[in-house]
Design goal:
The structure holds 2 protein chains of 2 kinds. Chain A has a domain of 347 residues: Amidase signature (AS) domain (Amidase signature (AS) enzymes). In chain A, helix 7 packs antiparallel against helix 15. Chain A is built from 16 helices and 11 strands. By secondary structure, chain A is an alpha/beta fold. In chain B, strands 1-2 form a two-stranded antiparallel ribbon. The longest helix of chain B is centred in the middle third of the chain and has 18 residues. Chain B is flat and about 55 Å long. Classes of the chains: A alpha/beta, B mainly alpha. At the A-B interface, helix 9, helix 10, helix 11, helix 12 and helix 13 of A face helix 1, helix 2, helix 4, helix 5 and helix 6 of B. Chain B: InterPro entries: Asp/Glu-ADT_sf_sub_c, GatC. Chain B: Its EC number is 6.3.5.-.
Chain lengths: 531, 148
Amino acid sequence: MVVAGGGGGGGDGPDGGRGAVLSEHQTLSSTSPPSSEILTIRKSLLSRERKAVEIAEEYLNRLRQTEPQIKSFLHVSENVMKEAKEIDGKIERNEELRPLAGVLIGVKDNICTADMPSTGGSRILQDYRPAFDATAVQKLRESGAVLVGKTNLDEFGMGSTTEGSGFQVTANPWDVTRVPGGSSGGSAAAVSARQCVVALGSDTGGSVRQPASFCGVVGMKPTYGRVSRFGLMAYASSLDVIGCFGSSVADTAILLEAIAGHDIFDATSSKHEVPNFASQFISTEFSESKPLKGLRVGIISETLGDGVDVPVASTIKAAASHLEELGCAVTEVSLPSFSLGLPAYYILASSESSSNLSRYDGVRYGNQVAAEELNSLYGDSRANGFGPEVKMRILMGTYALSAGYYDAYYKRAQQVRTLVQKSFKAALSENDILISPAAPSAAYKIGEKKNDPLAMYAGDIMTVNVNLAGLPALVLPCGFVEGGPAGLPIGLQMIGAQFDEGKLLRVGHIFEQTLQGCRFIPPLVAESVAS
Amino acid sequence: MYSSAVIWVKGGAPYLLLQHQQKQLFSTLSRKKTPLWFSPPSTTPRNFSARSSLQPLDVSRLAETARISLTPTEVEEFAPKIRQVIDWFGQLQAVDLQSIEPALRADTEGDNLRHDLPETFENREAMLAAVPSYEEPYIKVPKVLNKD
């Protein structure tokens, strides 16, 4: 299964032992490992093989074609072609080409952009245009990126399906009757359907990783504080982090490097050095047969038992075998506080949201409902602007923070957070990385869990603990299970120590480049994507 | 949150807090004691849900505290869902956490505070353009004082 020098030659064919389903269109010739779109674009611009406008046009055409079905964007920028032309001008004048020049990037709509509406997926901010760019967005612009638009999400990030958007429901490109996951479902679907090259999301309890798994793309949740939260609409400030989507690990790494670093506008952003992640990759062309020899991998035993779909568990076990073949020593590791993380997370997130969302009062920005007196203006504007899930979470948080209940809920949840942090620390002292599924199931049907909050919350069990501990985690597609017209992708989650994104990306890159028999391009766009 | 919760008690919820519960409530404000209905820590989830009937969840009252005008239909729709989640939160009561310090957030790094110096925000016009009712130089709101 491990192929040394398997960089460009295509696969040896489906691996029968994997237990994963291969779709019919995934022929032997179409299973070459994903390459970096960003580097391909850069190379073709530098060699003048292609123009930035041609690349932009290709993506915009695909976007126009697929958007009626997928609905991943809330707003598409009018400046894409203009910005692409400017880049072509710079190339003609032999000016320096910045690292993301000509790269089309989608931005989750809870991240502020001064030149496009930023609604957070909420009616209360319909048509709202911020007066500033989020720091991450500003850094993208400085890197030469072309912002293609704002992607759909569950309102203010509260949901796991993107059905909670105040505007539209996004569909999964692998099966349009299924959810793309959430809350960054728009960003995940957009990258999956190749409507943009890479995208920004945000991850409070799994909102980058679970949709990455559902849509068959790479998703990176960085260490808490790695990326500035300035300009990210706050949901739960102690957990929120901006994350990255790409169709390859390399693209995700390049995007993370572009947005990471300390920011004076976010006191929780870290001064930790930002490495050149992609330059630390192990080359697949010269790799020995055991490129990950000596790497200790702990598979979290609590994540493969009850409540996890059997095909998902077997796909993850197959991924673990793949890591073993690459030279890793895989052992089971137990996180005793694992199941407590879920209620603790929901107490903390809803409590913090009830406080953070008090800013949406219809007075300084957002939609206002006319009223006779101020309290009615607040109450009616909020009632009119917020959707049901946001209302319920604010109410739960208000309850949990009420005098007399604080010690019973919020403080207890914070104590559980300490337990979770300790158990991760112990597990990561004996292992270099930990692995688990990114979600207990593949993408489910639209509407399936809409009216059962606990069923939806239970789907976050694989991801919330990582936020409580503030650790980095990478999700990358590792196989398929049956479902939909062409099978449904499954994501492997790799969790690392604080600020150890480099290791996750390095391991992820080797994993992805040596994984045989899987190609994660949905049939919807397979034809239009040059292989 | 504390002040609004005190108003909640003063305002008189449809259910009355018993005298000893009120004492409990205010003693918790000083964070010295855990409210009776949440201790001892060995409480099993089943006991907890029996206890939770002591403090029924009043969604209308919560909505008032959170400044969201809910319709009666919404109250009816949300109440069982919120109750279900709050009961589910209750499982943490059964966990022994006595000697565990609470963590405010991930212990990734200390604060990187900037100097406390004023800075001029350049795009002032765009910010004011977002205000729904604006009359130079004021943000306009309806009357603040309530008739009662």
